[in-house]
Amino acid sequence: MIDDLVKSLRPDDVTEESYRARRADDLTRAFAERPARRRRTPLLAASGLLAAAAAAFVAFAPSTTVAQRPAPVPAATPVLTARSVLLAGAETLERTPAETGTYWHEKIRTFTSPMDGVVVASTAETWYDGRDGRIGPVRDVATTFADERAGKAWRAEGKPGLPVGAERSFKGMVLAWGIGTKEVRQEDLKKLPADRAALQKWLDEARPEGTGKGAFAFAAARHILTSPASNATRATLLRILADQNGLRLDENAKDPVGRPGLSITDATGDHTLVVDPATAKLLAYVYDGEDERPVDTPPGTTMIPAQKGTAYAYLESGWSDLPG
Amino acid sequence: MDDPETRFTDLYDRHYRAVLGYALLRADRAAAEDVVGETFLIAWRRLADLPPEPLPWLLGVARNLLRKQRDSGIRAERLLAYLPARAAPDVADQVTEREAALIVLAAMAEADAEALILTSWYGLTPREAAKIAGCATGTFTVRLHRARRRLTEALRPRTLQEQS
């Protein structure tokens, strides 16, 4: 049997010797680090048909017309922290008048990594009023490879991960997004409470068992901050986020399409929001949980720019009417 | 439940050898040991998130770390150096056959050789192994069959007619 022959080639002598030699040092080195972290919140994929696009609604503050644009947050406060950035964003939102419109419109550039060393980017646009809507054609598909070999492998596999989609309209479709254990529709998002205790209670109810409070708030924020939830609700959520421990701020970050901003990363290191400090607008969400689906999206996948995992850059978002 | 240290030690004791065996395909010994050390360090940081059957996950992490190295291809001379000794009366014959097998493996398309090695060394299902190899299960199965066929043909005793 050929497999038995190949099995006899396994270098068991060397691995056994190495195991004995390295074990003590390897264990010591690991235990010198902080203990294994708690289980992270699984990122729940949108269960609606809009899939990737659905996960990426709007921003801290809508920026449709000049009249509604919020007053800029002072960009150069003496000491910026993740907390102060989030609190400033909350204040901005509280000053922002509610927008009106029929369809929630968003234009998002999505970056995914279907294979090692391969990044596929594409831009998609959607309009949705809670029932009817339209999906624009997938545009500007671009593929980037870590090296020549990755490109070759990707072509050999039949170019997986290329988004396809023609423009189409739909009627009477219910789209729902998973936030923790809750299934949430557009009308539910609009009705999320703005009272802090009530919102915290809602988050606690949605939080899957075994998930840390802080980590879940951050994971849920990605959905809620980019949804048509009210400005007051989103401001409250930012205040909840601001009170989390272990947030990290990078003042010189760039989003996946190269726009400069401030990035805030949660304590687990998996979730990053990139914010425009002038408007408190969310530029992008980057998911860096390289081991979230360990084998599907393994570590070492290359993201642009130098990010791992999946990223959404919010190019446009807000209420609008259907085009043409 | 066991404390993290105990769980990690158990993980290390059960899988270090397997992960190193795989790393030795693509790196010399010192580099392979470093990669495996790094792999387990990542596993320690992510201990709470490891899947119930962690070996495919560990191999996937190691593979990605190995890809960052220059010259990470499967090399016959590398494998020959690690060929385990076998105490058997016909040692010479076995070694010759195994050497021949190694040379054939190293000469075939790397993805094909890897398919055969992942399957026979670790008993992984095509689905598990395909994820590590970063391809579809169907593609993996094709590679595996191709590798088996090629190796079988290369090692088949030849008749006089064929040799002439």
Automatic annotation (TrEMBL), chain A:
Q: Which InterPro entries match?
A: CU044_5270-like (IPR047789)
Q: Which residues cross the membrane?
A: 43-61
Which key words are in the record?
Membrane, Transmembrane, Transmembrane helix
Superkingdom of the organism of origin: Bacteria
Q: What is this protein called?
A: CU044_5270 family protein
Q: Which organism is it from?
A: Herbidospora galbida
